[in-house]
């Protein structure tokens, strides 16, 4: 999903959708984790509500967030598609919206005691105020501790996370260099063989210019970003492309439309030289529609009697933790029975009770039956299993959140995970998306650990790491190979996995100029990192 959900700029990171990176984090819960609906405040009106008593700012003195909920500068009217009830919005002020953010953050933010309290009346932009309501501490490696704080318009959130529909061209970009001389290529098509795209546009095709602006050294960043990540259907932008291995530059015009992504794009069985049957799944998105596709994929590989699995998560930034749990069970099978997939911990104000749902804090189990996130007909159906003792995972710094939870959850029940690619993004955290006044806010609310109590991978899982920590995995560092299609047995990361299966080592796999990739991370105009998530309103915790 990636920055299809957003346009914040990230530097040196990977993302989906715009030239901004999206990294996703952990989460748990199920569709039954439905919080109590906030009591109605009446239908939206045009009479401004009086200022709540005691609402004047006093540093480190907080009223309950319920005091300010749905007091909006621009109240919505009609039916809320997330709840089926009328919107509870009432006319309020910018300070009301900011006060809700301030109190909500103090109540549920994982590191609430690391927020510097600032007067909400001093901000005339709620998004700018929200940007301050987080920790600014660093991880052991020096990265921002909270790189996953972001917002998205609620209407856009709901339309994209349920079905994977976004506005674009049906392809995903990889920003290989964000600073001049910049370089961007096509990472993959949302649907291979998409007849609406010119034949020159395949994985690895290099972008030379956008609407007449040179991508490598052009100074008009807005034109580059706006063309690469259009906002509206019908937008038309002119590109120059050069195919891999060609010196010819071709000009094409792309028209943005509503595109439905395919979260499970390739499923195949590869037979090694020794005759070993190896399954391959390209899994790009933990959105709701992935549930049925993953069930079909595992059923197909089970029927093929695969002996090993290569799970390609290099472009998967996370989403529904429940889907991660289902897939982990389908890989490992009976060894997971009775074990937690992920244990959840909120801040120290909530040692026993989930502050969003009001229910006792519980672990996310390895789901052995389908939840029916989209297809109610699947609900309760037993999941197929491969019962494998190990899995090969192809990763990048776009592998984030729920994808990392698959790795961590499996390792918690002693499934061997062999990592091939690059260090993952490092997000053992998650949140419930919280809507207020038409904006959905993502603020880290909990951390997650596996059945062995491990969750300390804020700097990512490292292939063939040398720090001797539980975040160092067996495997090897292999750059992304844009000269071959994903799922091609000659593609560098897949080839390394196949060689490892045969020989116990990755072998001498060379990747030419393409070694680093930033999937759809916007050309940076600020240094912000945002996560990729997927959920229905605030019913399900997401990673």
TrEMBL record:
Keyword Nuclease applies: no
CDD domains for this protein: Peptidase_S41_CPP_like (cd07561)
Source lineage: Bacteria, Pseudomonadati, Pseudomonadota, Gammaproteobacteria, Cellvibrionales
Name of the molecule in the record: S41 family peptidase
InterPro entries, A to Z: ClpP/crotonase-like_dom_sf, PDZ_sf, Pept_S41_N, Tail-specific_protease
Keyword Signal: yes
SMART domains from the UniProt entry: TSPc
Ranges where the Tail specific protease domain occurs: 246-468
UniProt keyword annotations, A-Z: Signal
PROSITE patterns: PROKAR_LIPOPROTEIN
Signal peptide: 1-22
């Amino acid at each position: 999903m990636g920055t299809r959900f957003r346009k914040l700029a990230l530097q040196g990171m990977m993302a989906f959708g715009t030239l901004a990176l999206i990294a996703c984090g952990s989460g748990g819960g199920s569709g039954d984790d439905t919080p109590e609906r906030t009591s109605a405040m009446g239908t939206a009106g045009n009479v401004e509500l009086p200022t709540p008593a005691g609402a004047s700012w006093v540093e480190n003195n907080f009223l309950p967030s319920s005091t300010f909920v749905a007091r909006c500068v621009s109240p919505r009217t009609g039916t809320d598609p997330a709840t089926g009830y009328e919107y509870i919005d009432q006319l309020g002020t910018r300070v009301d919206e900011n006060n809700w953010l301030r109190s909500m953050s103090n109540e549920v933010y994982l590191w609430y005691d690391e927020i510097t309290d600032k007067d909400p009346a001093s901000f005339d932009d709620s998004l700018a105020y929200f940007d301050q309501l987080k920790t600014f501490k660093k991880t052991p490696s020096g990265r921002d501790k909270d790189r996953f704080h972001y917002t998205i318009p609620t209407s856009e959130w709901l339309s994209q996370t349920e079905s994977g529909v976004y506005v674009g061209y049906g392809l995903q970009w990889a920003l290989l260099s964000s600073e001049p001389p910049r370089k961007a290529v096509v990472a993959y098509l949302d649907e291979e063989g998409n007849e609406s795209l010119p034949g020159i546009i395949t994985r690895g095709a290099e972008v030379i210019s956008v609407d007449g602006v040179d991508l490598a050294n052009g100074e008009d960043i807005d034109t580059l970003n706006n063309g690469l990540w259009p906002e509206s259907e019908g937008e038309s932008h002119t590109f120059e492309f050069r195919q891999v291995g060609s010196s010819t530059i071709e000009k094409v015009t792309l028209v943005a439309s509503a595109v439905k992504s395919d979260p499970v794009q390739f499923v195949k069985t590869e037979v090694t030289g020794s005759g070993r049957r190896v399954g391959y799944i390209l899994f790009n998105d933990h959105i709701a529609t992935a549930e049925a596709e993953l069930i079909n994929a595992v059923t197909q590989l089970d029927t093929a009697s695969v002996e090993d699995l290569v799970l390609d998560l290099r472009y998967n930034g996370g989403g529904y933790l429940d889907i991660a749990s289902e897939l982990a069970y389908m890989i490992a099978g009976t060894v997971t029975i009775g074990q937690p997939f992920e244990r959840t911990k909120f801040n120290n104000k909530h040692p026993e009770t989930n502050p969003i749902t009001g229910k006792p804090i519980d672990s996310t189990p390895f789901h052995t039956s389908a939840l029916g996130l989209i297809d109610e007909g699947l609900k309760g159906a037993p999941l197929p299993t491969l019962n494998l003792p190990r899995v090969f995972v192809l990763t990048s710094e776009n592998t984030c959140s729920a994808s990392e939870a698959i790795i961590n959850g499996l390792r918690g029940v002693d499934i061997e995970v062999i990592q091939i690619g690059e260090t993952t993004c490092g997000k053992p955290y998650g949140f419930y998306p919280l809507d207020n006044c038409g904006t959905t806010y993502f603020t880290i609310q909990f951390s997650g650990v596996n059945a062995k109590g491990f969750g300390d991978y804020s700097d990512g899982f490292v292939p063939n790491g040398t720090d001797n920590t539980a975040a160092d995995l067996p495997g090897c560092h292999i750059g992304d190979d844009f000269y071959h299609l994903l799922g091609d047995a000659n593609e560098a990361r897949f080839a390394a996995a196949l060689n490892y299966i045969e020989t116990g080592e990755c072998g001498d796999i060379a990747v030419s100029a393409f070694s680093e990739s930033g999937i759809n991370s916007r050309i940076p105009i600020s240094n912000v990192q945002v996560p990729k998530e997927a959920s229905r309103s605030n019913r399900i915790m997401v990673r």
